[in-house]
Amino acid sequence: MDALLGENPRCDELRNPSVVNLIVSTLLVVGMLISYLPQHFRIISRGTSEGISPYFVLLGTTSATSAFANILLLPQSRQDVACCKELETFHCVAGLLGIAQLGVQWLCFSFIFVLFLVFFRYNAAEDPDNEDLGDAPEGAEADLQPRWQTALIVASLTLLHGLVVIVITGILSTVARDRLATWANLLGVMAAILAGVQYIPQIWTTYNLKHVGSLSIPMMCIQTPGGFIFAGSLFARLGLAGWSSWGIFVLTATMQGILLYMAIYYEIHALHPSQAGGQQPSLSHLHANGFDDETPGRYTSHPEAYSTTPDQLATIVDRQDADAAAETAPLLRPGGIGDPHRNYDTNRG
Questions:
Q1: 64, 101, 259, 271: which has the fewest C-beta neighbours closer than 10 Å?
Q2: What residues form the membrane-spanning segments (predicted)?
Q3: Total structural domains in the chain?
Q4: Looking at the domain assignment, is residue 134 inside a domain?
Q5: Cα–Cα distance, 293 to 58 (Å, whole number)
């Protein structure tokens, strides 16, 4: 078997890696890691995941899981792993950089998933302290409110998806290895579909909020052009046969570019409100986690967006101070965790 592996043309290719492709692949792995750090830092520093759609997190994590499993199971990737038995460490690592790229992406987005749960903010459907802020709009429904159940559903579906992928892969690897390529392509299609719709709830959330909340603009500035470069790198490695892997990033980079444009637009108008006619965002559009409601979140970063008079603003601020002082709820319970004394200014980095 070892002799056969030594004669494998693919192994010979890995012994003579392209210097340009090696440098680009290495930079992409490092760049992928760096690009997610601003998002991680922003959520942690603000102590809230306000402005990040729970469905964006759900779709993004499951898409990253499917993409990582896809590239692990592609025939060429399995050949690269098998060739490591015959290759020196440097050549083996260089040959597996394409897999490492998707692995880093999966780890980084999974960490966003964890931070979203840790800093998820509950907003009660009925808050007596908000009664003097005006009546709720007719037809407002309590089930549109973001509750701690929302975070549990997101967590449960994400973990269930990962478990199903592992179980099916294990079964096929044991009793039907000839079906692994088909399963890999199915995972690639699943990842592409999930990635294709991943940004829709986030775009909708950002459009309704009229601000970015805890969404990181620097992350998107790095990832949008990086996504196209990443897709090109995978195309160079996998060719047209790897369409189910690199096609994901062409699609997501395009959608992320749309979101980036919106985010920059709203931030510019937030810094220069006179350009927007000095109008405040519509009350019916604003909610800490992107759900329709005229009631401010328990720790909303934009109390001024829910008030039309100084008295209303003072009432909101006093209520938030009182809630912060009484904060005792642990993870995934009303109020979440985080620093109740922090200034949750959306324009902070």
A1: 271
A2: 19-37, 52-73, 94-120, 151-173, 180-200, 212-236, 248-266
A3: 1
A4: no
A5: 22
Helices (H), 210-309: 217-238, 243-271
What digits encode the pLDDT tens for the residues 291-332? 334 445 555 666 666 666 777 777 777 777 766 666 554 444
CA angle 21, 27, 30 (to 5 degrees): 140
Reading phi first (left if > 0) and then psi (alpha if -120 to 50, else beta), residue 46 is in: alpha
pLDDT at 344: 47
φ and ψ of 84, to 5 deg:
-60, -20
The CA distance from 54 to 62, in Å, is 12
- Determine the structural domain holding residue 245 and report its residue range: 2-120+145-276
| Cα–Cα distance list, 300 to 117, 144, 257, 339 (Å) | 17, 17, 26, 13
Q: How many CB atoms lie within 10 A of CB 99?
A: 17
Per-residue burial over 226-253, b if 16 or more Cβ lie within 10 Å, else e, is bbeebbebbbbbbeeebbbbbbbbbbbb
pLDDT tens-place string over residues 152-168: 899 999 999 999 999 99
162 found inside a domain: yes
